[in-house]
Amino acid sequence: MPKVDIFNTDKKKVGEIDLADAVFGTEVKEHLFYAAVRYQMAARRAGTHQTKGRTQVSGGGKKPYRQKGTGRARQGTRRAVQFRGGGVVHGPHNRSHAHDLPKKVRRAALKSALSRRTEENALTVFEAFELSEIKTRSFVDVMKKFEFEDLLLVLSEKDETVIKSARNISGVKVLPVEGLNVYDVLDHKNLAMTSAAVEAVVARLEA
């Protein structure tokens, strides 16, 4: 069972915590990362690309030229796909790119991502992460003490003071436990969680 130190925001050790093997010490299955990230990215796509077919483009009410005697192929409308300004055949249309991924696979991928950061010693556990006011400098000071270049901070519940203090810092993201996902864990070299968030994550993934 992995054991890590618990720190306060001044980088003083205040205790230790045992991390559940079932969540933070599982076998890392990298092929699940691809499946989970692809699932997330597909769901984020707007799918608003749209082309017009021959029934949607304007004009074309008049026959381009007479049926016979010109030596050319017969044509009924300028809206046909072979004409410039005509419709587009087999073009993209509004649709959702989202696809299904079994819940079991999503949970296993998240466990693998958390285990990867744990084995890399890139997981930091805070006793609590609270700021007295919305101030970017306060958040940056904490990052400097821990020598974080980038950071994914996971809180047990949404804290607007912390979120707003970090929102203008490049490479930093703050999420509540409910928003924890594979893509963001892999996208940041450093992962930090409050002790309460660790307990919530274990309860969520062990259930």
Count the DSSP helices.
7
Q: How many strands? A: 6
- Distance, first to last CA: 18 Å
What average pLDDT do the residues reach?
94
Proportion in helices: 25-40%
* Name of the CATH first level of the largest domain: Alpha Beta
Major sheet characteristics:
6 strands, mixed
The succession of helices and strands, N to C, reads: EEHHHEHEHEHEH
Second-tier CATH architecture of the largest domain: 3-Layer(aba) Sandwich
Output the radius of gyration. 27 Å
At the fold tier of CATH, the topology name of the largest domain is Ribosomal Protein L4, Chain: A
Structural summary, described in words:
With 207 residues, this protein is α/β, with parallel strands linked by helices. The protein has two domains: 3-44 and 100-206, Ribosomal Protein L4, Chain: A, CATH 3.40.1370; 51-91, no CATH class. 35% of the residues lie in helices and 14% in strands. It has helices at residues 21-24, 30-44, 103-119, 136-146, 160-166, 182-187, 195-206; strands spanning 3-7, 13-18, 123-126, 151-155, 172-176, 191-194. Strands 2-1-3-6-4-5 form a six-stranded mixed beta sheet. Helix 2 crosses helix 3. The longest helix has 17 residues, at 103-119. The mean pLDDT is 94.
Q: In terms of topology, how is this protein built?
A:
Layout (H helix, E strand, L loop, with lengths): L2 E5 L5 E6 L2 H4 L5 H15 L58 H17 L3 E4 L9 H11 L4 E5 L4 H7 L5 E5 L5 H6 L3 E4 H12 L1
Parallel strand pairs: 1-3, 3-6, 4-5, 4-6
Antiparallel strand pairs: 1-2
Helix pairs in contact: 2-3, 4-5
